[in-house]
Amino acid sequence: MQQVQDVNAVIAQARSHSLGDIPRRSARRHPDKTAIIDGDRQLSFAEFDHVVDRAAAALHDNGFRPGDRLALLSRNCWQYAVLAFATARAGVVLVPINFMLTADEIAYILGHCNATGFVVEADLTPTAEQAMRSGGAVTTTAALIPPGQAAPPGWDDFAQWLTTTSPAPTPHIDDDQLLRLMYTSGTESRPKGVMHSSRSLIWQYVSTIVAGSMSGDDIEVHSLPLYHCAQLDNFLATDIYLGATSIIVPRPDPDLVLRAIERHRVTNYFAPPTVWISLLRSPVFDEVDLSSLRKGYYGASAMPTEILAELRQRLPELRLWNFYGQTELAPLASALGPDEQDAHAGAAGRPVVNVETTILDDADNPVPAGVVGEIAHRSPHLMLGYLDDPAKTADAFRGGWFHSGDLGYYDEHGLLHVVDRKKDMINTGGENVASREVEDVLYRHAGVEEVAVFGLPHPVWVEAVAAAVVPRAGVVLTADELLSHCREHLAGFKTPKQVFFVDALPKNPSGKLLKRVLRERFRAEQHTPN
Q: For domain 17-200, which architecture applies?
């Protein structure tokens, strides 16, 4: 019996394909190739794998064991990439945290996931300390400190952790062992902890690589926050998996991104439409050589048709993909490829290779093509469930499908269209209005820089369609002008009842529009429309 157990153990070791194995395998294939560039720091794949090993050993030295939770609060940096794989190699659960959150919001996540460790960027340690004072079980802390600076009092220097000479731990990692907790940015009062394993993440990497025509020859700039699964798992992790080169920049600043593309001859870039718009509007755009850029990816919302046309005109060699998904899918569900962008602008494309997608009515029955219902998925990408929330998990997976909360339909070409989030669908006078449809019309107006459409409470119509508009620089717009433009292209009930002019739209660091902020802000300012 013991011999059988021993044989099974070594077979399991030989067949292992966990998240923590990826850097080692890429290093064996491409030891001297550049894996990561972050400012002056450059790591080959062999060096990156070595640092991952040192970080995994340091976690073990500091008492972390498989299943323990390590929270990470930081802007983009090379250490983020290291910890994404080192935690998995040690069997530790990584909990990325949005660096824009308040101390109270961070405290909730620390307590909810029962984090015992916290790695924090040096200038964020005051917020982290305030969060830890509010509760939680954190006992071990380390700071990511710029060279030449001292660690804040009470914090270890993460760089010193990496000097350990201890052997890295080699725990057996099951395919569906919890390795990552991603907290939803959420529309509810509290975010949900989405649980992912090697199985969900790696199957998602395969789907992303196939759907996005990615290869080891790619050079990609990563500017969206790595705490978000799109940048971390659609792009950074897939680059490490393939042996591609990653350029890490701290934020999606247009000048930083554009100059990084020129300097490093970048081939791939991902950003939501709002960031692509900011690149087009930057004066640096026409100063730099962007001829190396061949693959562009967008997500979080549909690309406005006018912006798509402008990208075509100003970057004629760029091929574009629309990626649609959500955190619970790790995150990719479907993709619209370059050859269908013009004919089917706004579509979410086709389910990717490891995803099955259907449309369900309110009774969870499939509906035919052309009928709007809730988008639902089956896939090995899917999460294990919501942490400590069996009721929401059961509801999300009812009937053996994951219910996305998005409304959509399949067209006659077999393409998926996302009509709206359920929460963003506007019901006015008994008629449903998709905010994206109204936004697309407003983007056709030459004076509109950015727009968000949302519903406001109305005593007669239940909700009234409203729009927040950022005018283009130097353009004077009036509400009457925009409403007249909408009436030419939309039914009366879809035309906004109110237009609010704003200097900027509220967004999270991933570029997603925060319509709930607009609803809260303008609820008090609205007049009673007709």
A: 3-Layer(aba) Sandwich (3.40)
Other C-beta atoms within 10 Å of 216: how many?
Answer: 14
Beta-sheet strands, E only, within 240-372: 245-248, 268-270, 295-298, 319-325, 332-336, 350-351, 356-360
User: Per residue in 265-292, pLDDT tens?
Assistant: 999 999 988 899 899 999 999 999 999 9
Q: Report residue 379: phi and psi, to 5°.
A: -175, 150
What span, in angstroms and rounded, lies between the C-alpha atoms of 232 and 224? 9
Residue 79 near residue 144 (C-beta atoms within 8 A): yes
CATH of 425-523, picked from 3.90.550.10, 3.30.300.30, 3.30.365.10, 3.20.20.70, is: 3.30.300.30
Contact partners, residue 50, CB within 8 Å, separation at least 6: none
pTM: 0.84
Reported as a single tens digit per residue, the pLDDT across 469-499 is 999 999 999 999 999 999 988 878 889 999 9
What Rg do the C-alpha atoms of the chain give, in angstroms?
24
Q: What is the largest CA-CA distance in the chain?
A: 82
| DSSP 8-class letter at 487 | H
User: How far apart, in whole angstroms, are the C-alpha atoms of residue 371 and residue 349?
Assistant: 16
Alpha helices (H) along 16-77: 22-29, 45-61
Q: Crossing angle, helix 78-90 and helix 45-61, to 10 degrees?
A: 60
Parse the chain into domains and list their residue ranges. 17-200, 425-523
3-state secondary structure 95-141: EEECCCCCHHHHHHHHHHHCCCEEEEEHHHHHHHHHHHHCCCCCCEE
What pLDDT, on the 0 to 100 scale, is given for residue 3? 75
